[in-house]
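I hope you will forgive my troubling you with a question about protein structure. I am sending you one protein, given as its amino acid sequence and as whole-number tokens for its backbone shapes. Thank you for your consideration; the sequence and its tokens are set out here:
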Amino acid sequence: MKRIKLGLVTKLLIAIILGIIFGQLAFLPNFIIQIPVTISALFSSLLSFIIPLMIIGFVVVGIADLTQGAGKLLGITTLMAYSSTLIAGFIAYFIAVNVFPLFIDSGLSAEGIGEKSSLDPLFSIPIEPIMDVTSAIVFSFMIGICISWLRGQGKGDTMYNFFSEFSLIISKLLNSLIIPGLPIFIFGNFANLSYTGSVFSILSVFWKVFVIVIGLQLILVSLFFVIAGLYTKKNPLILIKNQIPGYITAIGTQSSAATIPVNLEVAKKNGVSAQIREFVIPLCATIHLLGSIVTVISCVTAVLLMYNMPVQFGMMAGFIAMLGIAMVAAPGAPGGAIMSALPFMTMVGIDPTGVLGNLLITLYLTQDSFGTAANVSGDNAIAVIMDKIYFKHILKKNN
């Protein structure tokens, strides 16, 4: 009998569905549900340990391969990511202030949105990362640019070979352990979310906001791919189709960093060169937050409207500009963006440690997976554009 081989997308969808069903089985003792939650937590710890190493392995070699124009490529990529994040934030604000008042009652309160506590793992193994994500990015930039400069001088082969082989080790680890383990990780996450019932209770109140947010994210990502397709003369529909595995993976993991290996394969399908995709994808997983800022701005505006608080453009413009910078340091993990944004909530009159701050965390986490999916999808649109910019403008000009 021929064995049916399931693709990654199919496995992820099955894991999501089974996780939701498993978490709803009320007759099961809690410790039974805690088993996949524990496995998921252990996997998450391992992933947190590997993420900085992944960034170093890919970004250092990616920059080092760019013996000419590395600084320009970094600057253009960063500018494009920040501009995309800002534009998405302002669009989200204008949609929110014009559409949300049609169905948000300013007398609504956060009371009654109670939920069961999430299940804790049966045990945990503390695995501290060698360095945090921001340090890994800075380290990779400095080392990669210096190796790139050395190679331009006819030197640097020893350092380049070391990081190249380190990159191969990371790739082997990802292909043999991380990617095969993603469905198990997702199953545990969704089982816990389903057990708490938080997603369902919150959506019963805010489902209209979420529908608009998700729709806006999809529209913005599609427009980004259309722009990328027009600029590079590639079919936008094929680019969007290729992104589906990355989008679904991000929904399940709620992590831009965890989606990097899948997103790299998507970029390869899109015809993006190895040196560009291995530089742009890990970098943008940290600095490009198109979907996250749409979620944050929409949720903040919704809460302000609910409590009849000011939503003036001047106030929100400063908040959006600051978020574009603050969220760059957000860890590529569930809830990272909202945690980085919390210290700046006082700019719009929200106490990050009060009731509204807690409500925003709950709202954001409910929709976090879709925002992350939009983030990583936009990363590949940037990669397609940067591939042409590098080979047509930066590299040719230097030659």
